[in-house]
């Protein structure tokens, strides 16, 4: 740059704006390179013509304070050449070269005109900079090849990027069209599903009516069958008596017939004409027959005098059989009662021992423990008086009341603080709290803090989760309150959510922010509540916000098929159901999903969260029991995989990989395939693995014992 001071330029009093600044960038790009070069050369000549040799190019501001500069010179005058030799030194002040000022003014005017235009674009704003760069290339002959190569390299890259953008434009239009087609298909499928659901509901109602009708017919038929059986028994007894009477009548008729025959034979005239000897012999034989018959009759009476009729025997036999069955059942019941009596005696003895032990413990506790606190004393201390204390203490035990009092005391102390001490820049300090020095306390209300946390979750769920949650939280505060107040709001919100444990919005946000719980837990809870609300809205065909208890129960059972009957009943009671309520009673289901101004949800949503926590703990307890290891022992990845599949056979491959990745803190891509892992491969302490799973969204996918299909 030693040759630069030797170049001189003269400046004209007025400059005209180059006409190329008003052109659109597309027009400039469509012109041939020769035309552009010609126009740029003409503009350069115009600008160079305005700069005479009277100016002085200096390497400002690189020269030192002792360098001489030209002062009080007139452009295009003869005296300016004479004053070159007489240079005045200014040790403390430096003047910008006039040529540089002219170029800056020209660039400023060009950019101002482009900003005033309606069709100015980012690429069009590059045109003044191209012109200034061309002036430098043409004026500095020594560096012209290097500067030209730099400019050509950038122009080639810009042209390449423009071609790539033009090539991607049809793909963008195709994506928009494909998105619209997919949305139309989805809407059509949803409409078809709603129609199928309505038809299935109608078919279900018809089948239920048919089942009720069949049950009524079954009951009436059973009644008729019992009546017919009774009539049959009566007819059977009647026919038995008729049969016996008929046999007696037949015997009487035979006896009368025999007597009539004897009488006819006795009165017959031919009998008197027979031989008396023959008659005497016949009489003798008849008497012998009579004697024999009499003996047989006496023998029969002696042998069968106590014999009952067969009908009575069968009846008595049936009664005896029934009595025997009753005796057997009573004997079995007696044995069962004896066993229960023995077990109750043992239980009674153990209960007596436990009673004595508890009584002794009670006496010891009464002797050593302090008296139960009188919580009514807090009514005059808590802000809001008796009414607010009753609202805070509703359905809470002593431990929870202690938390409430601590929050009330902490809230007062928090409002008294005007600033917080900075925690410094240590590695153990969270990124959003790294600051040294006092930090202002913004003193927001609980409602304001809850609204800010809800906005954070709303923005977090709306975008892709690329950055970590603490970094996203601090970036959100910077966008919301500015970089200067972001650290103050970070400390203020952190102190509030650390204090208020009973507020579910703050406690969940604190757990996710400090890494004690993953974001998937919060997202899964919100999706479950939204799905349940959607199912209730679909069941409300009149859109009145009302559902019957029977519909409410059916929706809970279909949405949570793995929950037990007791859990469904707990949810219904949290929603307003009572044991003496009628199944057709209507209630407002929309009130179940409402929140107060501090973010506290309805008891129904709180009960859902409590059951989720209990189910997760039970799931992890079954996993530990299936592994059969102590907490300090190490577990391998293959053994953990088998244990998860044993307690939850319906686990799909993706969910299983997610659980293993969370437990062993490994990326899913680094997990070995099933069957390829080494038995003594990746190991981890069981306690750490269970703690990692406790932080994540872990739940049962299907029942443990798969029932065989019929």
How would you describe this structure to a colleague?
By secondary structure, the protein is mainly alpha-helical. Among the domains are: 4-80 and 89-142, no CATH class; 311-369; 417-512, no CATH class; 517-612, Recoverin, domain 1 (Orthogonal Bundle), CATH 1.10.238; 628-710, no CATH class. It has helices at residues 25-30, 33-50, 79-82, 98-116, 126-139, 144-266, 276-304, 310-368, 385-392, 398-416, 446-462, 469-481, 483-499, 504-513, 519-539, 549-559, 565-574, 603-627, 637-647, 653-664, 686-695, and strands at 68-69, 88-89, 419-421, 438-440, 546-548, 586-588, 634-636, 683-685. The strands form 4 sheets. A two-stranded antiparallel sheet has the order 1-2. Strands 3-4 form a two-stranded antiparallel ribbon. It has a two-stranded antiparallel sheet with strand order 5-6. It is elongated. The two termini are 94 Å apart. Residues 1-41, 43-93 and 706-710 have low confidence and may be disordered.
Name its key features.
single chain, 710 residues, mainly alpha, two-stranded antiparallel ribbon, 21 helices, elongated, disordered N terminus, disordered C terminus
């Amino acid at each position: 740059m030693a040759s630069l001071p030797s170049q001189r330029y003269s400046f004209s009093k007025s400059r005209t704006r180059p006409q190329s600044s008003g052109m659109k960038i597309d027009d400039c790009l469509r012109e041939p390179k020769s035309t552009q070069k010609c126009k740029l050369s003409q503009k350069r000549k115009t600008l160079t013509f305005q700069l005479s040799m009277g100016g002085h190019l200096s390497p400002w501001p690189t020269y030192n304070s002792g360098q001489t500069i030209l002062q009080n010179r007139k452009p295009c005058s003869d005296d300016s050449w004479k004053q070159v030799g007489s240079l005045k030194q200014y040790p403390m002040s430096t003047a910008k070269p006039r040529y540089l000022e002219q170029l800056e003014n020209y660039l400023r005017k060009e950019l101002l005109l482009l900003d005033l235009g309606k069709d100015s674009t980012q690429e069009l704003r590059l045109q003044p900079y191209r012109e200034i760069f061309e002036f430098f290339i043409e004026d500095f002959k020594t560096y012209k090849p290097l500067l030209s190569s730099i400019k050509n390299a950038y122009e080639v890259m810009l042209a390449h990027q423009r071609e790539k953008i033009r090539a991607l434009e049809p793909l963008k239009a195709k994506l928009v069209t494909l998105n619209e087609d997919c949305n139309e298909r989805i809407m059509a499928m949803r409409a078809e599903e709603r129609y199928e659901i309505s038809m299935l509901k109608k078919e279900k109602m018809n089948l239920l009516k048919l089942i009720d009708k069949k049950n009524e017919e079954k009951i009436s038929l059973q009644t008729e069958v019992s009546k017919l059986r009774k009539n049959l028994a009566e007819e059977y007894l009647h026919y038995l008596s008729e049969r016996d009477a008929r046999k007696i009548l037949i015997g009487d008729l035979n006896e009368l017939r025999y007597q009539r025959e004897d009488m006819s034979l006795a009165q017959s005239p031919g009998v008197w004409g027979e031989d008396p000897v023959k008659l005497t012999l016949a009489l003798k034989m008849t008497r012998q027959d009579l004697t024999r018959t009499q003996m047989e009759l006496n023998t029969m009476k002696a042998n069968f005098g106590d014999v009952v009729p067969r009908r009575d025997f069968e009846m008595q036999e049936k009664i005896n059989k029934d009595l025997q069955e009753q005796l057997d059942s009573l004997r079995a019941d007696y044995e069962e009662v004896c066993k229960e009596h023995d077990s109750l005696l043992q239980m009674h003895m153990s209960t007596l021992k436990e009673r004595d032990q508890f009584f002794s413990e009670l006496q010891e506790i009464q002797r050593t423990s302090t008296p139960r606190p009188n919580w009514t004393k807090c009514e005059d201390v808590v802000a809001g008086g008796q009414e607010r204390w009753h609202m805070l203490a509703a359905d809470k035990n002593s431990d929870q009341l202690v938390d409430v009092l601590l929050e009330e005391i902490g809230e007062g102390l928090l409002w008294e603080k005007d600033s917080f001490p900075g925690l410094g820049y240590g590695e153990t300090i969270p990124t959003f709290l790294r600051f040294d020095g006092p930090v202002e306390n913004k003193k927001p209300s609980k409602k304001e803090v809850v609204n800010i946390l809800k906005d954070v979750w709303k923005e977090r769920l709306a975008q892709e989760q690329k950055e970590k949650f603490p970094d996203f939280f601090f970036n959100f505060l910077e966008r919301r309150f500015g970089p200067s107040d972001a650290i103050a709001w970070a400390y203020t919100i952190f102190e509030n959510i650390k204090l208020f444990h009973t507020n579910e919005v703050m406690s969940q946000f604190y757990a996710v922010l400090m890494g004690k719980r993953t974001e998937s837990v919060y997202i899964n809870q919100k999706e479950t509540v939204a799905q349940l609300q959607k199912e209730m809205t679909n069941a409300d065909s009149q859109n009145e916000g009302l559902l019957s208890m029977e519909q409410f129960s059916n929706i809970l059972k279909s949405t949570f098929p793995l929950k037990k009957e007791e859990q469904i009943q707990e949810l219904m009671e949290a929603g307003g159901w009572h044991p003496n309520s009628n199944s057709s009673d209507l209630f407002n289901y929309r009130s179940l999903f409402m929140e107060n101004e501090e973010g506290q949800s309805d008891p129904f949503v709180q009960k859902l969260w409590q059951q989720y926590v209990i189910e997760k703990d039970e799931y992890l307890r079954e996993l530990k029991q299936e592994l059969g290891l102590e907490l300090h022992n190490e577990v391998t990845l293959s053994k953990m995989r088998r244990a998860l599949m044993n307690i939850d056979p319906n686990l799909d491959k993706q969910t299983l990989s997610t659980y293993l990745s969370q437990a062993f803190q490994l990326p899913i891509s680094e997990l070995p395939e099933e069957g390829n892992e080494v038995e003594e491969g990746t190991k981890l302490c069981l306690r750490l693995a269970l703690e990692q799973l406790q932080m994540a969204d872990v739940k049962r996918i299907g029942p443990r014992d798969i029932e065989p299909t019929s």
